[in-house]
Design brief:
The complex is a heterodimer of chains A (334) and B (336). With 334 residues, chain A is mainly α. Helix content of chain A is 77%, strand content 0%. Chain A has 14 helices and no strands. In chain A, helix 6 packs across helix 9, helix 8 packs across helix 9 and helix 12 crosses helix 13. The longest helix of chain A has 42 residues. Chain A starts with a helix and ends in a 7-residue tail after the last helix. Chain B is mostly helical and 336 residues long. Chain B folds into 2 domains: 287 residues, Orthogonal Bundle (MetI-like fold), CATH 1.10.3720; 33 residues, no CATH class. In chain B, 59% of the residues lie in helices and 10% in strands. In chain B, the strands form 4 sheets. Chain B has a two-stranded antiparallel ribbon. The longest helix of chain B has 37 residues. Chain B is elongated and about 105 Å long. Chain B starts with a helix and ends in a 10-residue tail after the last helix. The chains are: A mainly alpha (334), B mainly alpha (336). The interface between A and B is large, with 55 and 46 residues.
Chain lengths: 334, 336
């Protein structure tokens, strides 16, 4: 099957999944107690005003019409209006997305940079102190709730040692600002911006990244142990290939392929982790928006957030599958 | 290592069951006079400058407030081994009672998810065809939801109703004297709060893992000789699923269940931390309370978190051991 056909098929599946997510999320709003227009209005408002507002928001239409209307708007990025700010829900979600992506990417990068060497060392020096250390770390890492880890890091590094801020990140410190300075060749400003950015993102990135570091360490170790016992490794060694090449070019390469797939599927865990990490550090991202919107019963924003996360999940996993086929062309239809 | 895991799990279960006998205080009793008392071994004395007061007002001399040095000591006592929280409640007692919430949600939530997921998964895998396609597509959709986000959205929609059931060790209706004569716990909360909605929600966002594993097993078992033989002698399908497929699929389901209890305990603590729990006696809730005192009283958030970590480590150790010993090929989402 050619890559184009594969992408076409996976995209169709992806659209089906997104449709499912939209439908579930849409249904969610209508099992919620209370009418949506009541969120907007004070309780003592007259019945006529109530009906007017409902009509204005299209809430007086039959359910299936509202549903079709919602679906029809989606390709154009229309996801309803926030009940709180009266602005498009999709706009509110997209404006918080960069902060969350910064956090998620920083955490993933930290996790990969630490975990893969750790896993390789652990697998190649079995039953050494280094192996026990890595195994213990990965056990504790996958067992620690990240919000608690975040609170502990703040107590230790912000409150006691004063190395990192305990206040929320001010507006204007983001990787986008650093990049803008860099493009404008303001190198001094860019360096300062980068320092500030690191100052604020370090603890949240560790908080979110620890679980993934632990998970990838464990996957790399187990994968390497398995690969190093395979026939082709023995063959490579027998023909006199240096051990470094055997380990890193052959065994590690084959270990990494399945890890990529696992990471794609863990995107949901990453987003869930980001939601709660943002709460701990008052990070101005999607997680904060979702929790605030649920508490304010601002369903259009909750819906838009979940749908956009679902789209991200589908797109990333199609990309991962395509990458998988590219790295390992033997992978056929499954 | 597995032994350590078994010991940890047994410890948490025993602590959860016998909580009323193990705690020095009612975990909900507030005492503002002894709030924020540090744990045993962490008391400190410090010297602070305090304004001198005369007749209820500060004394000013040469335009400055007159101060004196006074020794401020933070008392600790064995009555509060883990210290007290911001409202003067005993942290140790709250950690012990918190084990009940985690165990109730973890075990009941996993059971519901397992029963539902296994029934759906075995049916789909055994019959194949359209039933199976529908299930697999539904589980694709489920996977696209981040479980924590879906859980908070559901609790946000449905509320966090909880059921109060009487604590069997604290028989209400008896007077304190009768209770203590009978060896029952005295002065403890009379009910156990079961966060019903939270249990349903955690089961709902996790059943799909069981369905996927059960389907895989049923798929590989339905072609076995003994299943074909049973069908040949005229056994009906539901009988075959119950008597032949389920018993042989049970091993990987047990391994998954162990890991899922850990995942659900983490999910419950995250929900409680975010303020979506149905009870205030929960480790996650206590951590969120402790966060408000993070600059003065580190122990309030630290102690319940350690309890979560030890419980989940215990479950993960046993899960790993079962997996290695039985070697079923399964995956599963880890936690928050």
């Amino acid at each position: 099957m050619s890559l184009a056909r594969f992408l076409f098929r996976r995209s169709l599946q992806g659209i089906f999944v997104i449709w499912g997510v939209v439908t579930v999320v849409f249904g969610l709003r209508f099992v919620a107690p209370g009418k949506p227009e009541n969120v907007l209005l004070p309780p003592d408002v007259s019945e006529t005003t109530r009906q007017q507002v409902a009509a204005e928001l299209g809430l007086d239409q039959p359910l299936y019409l509202q549903y079709l209307d919602y679906i029809a708007g989606l390709p154009f990025g229309e996801m309803g209006t926030s009940l709180v700010t009266r602005t498009p829900a999709s706009g509110r979600v997209l404006s918080t997305l960069p902060a969350t992506l910064e956090l998620a990417i920083a955490a993933t990068v930290v996790a990969i940079v630490i975990a893969i060497p750790l896993g390789v060392i652990s697998a190649t020096r079995r039953h050494n102190p280094a192996d026990y250390g890595a195994t213990l770390f990965s056990l504790v890492g996958i067992s620690t709730p990240n919000f608690w880890l975040g609170v502990m890091l703040v107590i230790l590094f912000s409150v006691q040692l004063g190395w990192f801020p305990s206040s929320r990140r001010p507006v204007g410190i983001g990787i986008d600002a650093v990049l803008a300075d860099l493009v404008a060749l303001q190198l001094g400003a860019a360096a300062d911006g980068l320092r500030e950015w690191l100052y604020y993102i370090t603890l949240p990135a560790i908080t979110l990244g620890t679980y993934f570091t632990a998970l990838i360490t464990r996957l790399t170790r187990n994968g390497m142990l398995e690969e190093l016992g395979e026939e082709y490794v023995r063959a490579a060694r027998a023909k006199g290939l240096p051990e470094t090449l055997v380990r890193y070019k052959h065994a590690l390469r084959n270990t990494l392929i399945p890890i990529i797939t696992v990471l794609g599927l863990q995107l949901g865990t990453l987003i869930g982790g980001a939601v709660i990490t943002e709460r701990v550090f008052r990070w101005p991202g999607l997680g904060t928006l979702i929790i605030n919107s649920i508490q304010a019963r601002d369903w259009p924003v909750v819906q838009a957030s979940i749908i956009i996360i679902g789209v991200g999940f589908v797109v990333v996993n199609i990309f991962v599958d395509a990458l998988y086929r590219y790295i390992n062309p033997q992978v056929g239809e499954s | 290592m597995a032994k350590i895991g078994v010991v940890l799990i047994l410890l948490v279960v025993i602590v959860a069951v016998f909580a009323p006998f193990l705690v020095p205080h009612d975990p909900t009793d507030q005492n503002l006079e002894s709030a924020q008392q540090p744990p045993v071994g962490f008391g400190s004395t410090s010297v602070e400058e305090v304004p001198v007061q005369e007749n209820g007002s500060v004394v000013i001399e040469d335009g400055n407030i007159v101060t004196e040095e006074r020794t401020v000591s933070e008392n600790t006592s064995w009555s509060h081994p883990f210290g007290t929280d911001g409202n003067g409640r005993d942290v140790f007692s709250r950690v012990i009672y918190g084990a009940r919430t985690s165990m109730i949600v973890g075990i009941i939530g996993t059971l519901i998810a397992a029963v539902f997921g296994v029934v759906v998964g075995l049916t789909a895998g055994y019959y194949g065809g359209r039933v199976e396609d529908t299930l697999m597509r539904a589980s694709d959709i489920m996977l696209a939801f981040p479980s924590l986000v879906l859980a908070i959205a559901l609790v946000g929609v449905w509320g966090n109703a909880a059921i109060k059931i009487p604590d069997p060790f604290v028989v209400s209706g008896l007077s304190e004297t009768v209770r203590s004569a009978l060896g029952l716990a005295v002065g403890m909360p009379e009910t156990i709060t079961v966060p019903g909605t939270v249990i349903i929600v955690v089961a709902l966002v996790n059943w799909v893992w069981f369905a996927r594993v059960a389907r895989g097993e049923a798929l590989s078992l339905r072609g076995q000789e003994y299943v074909k033989a049973a069908r040949a002698v005229g056994a009906d399908n539901s009988y075959i699923i119950r008597k032949h497929i389920l018993p042989n699929a049970i091993t990987p389901i047990m391994v998954l269940a162990t890991i899922q209890v850990a995942a659900i305990i983490l999910l419950e603590s995250a929900l409680s931390f975010l303020g979506f729990s149905g009870t205030n006696l929960s480790w996650g809730f206590d951590i969120s309370q402790g966060r408000r005192f993070q600059s003065t009283s580190w122990w309030i958030a630290t102690m319940p978190g350690l309890a979560i970590v030890l419980t989940v480590i215990g479950l993960n150790l046993v899960g790993d051991w079962l997996r290695d010993a039985l070697d079923p090929d399964i995956g599963g989402e880890g936690g928050v």
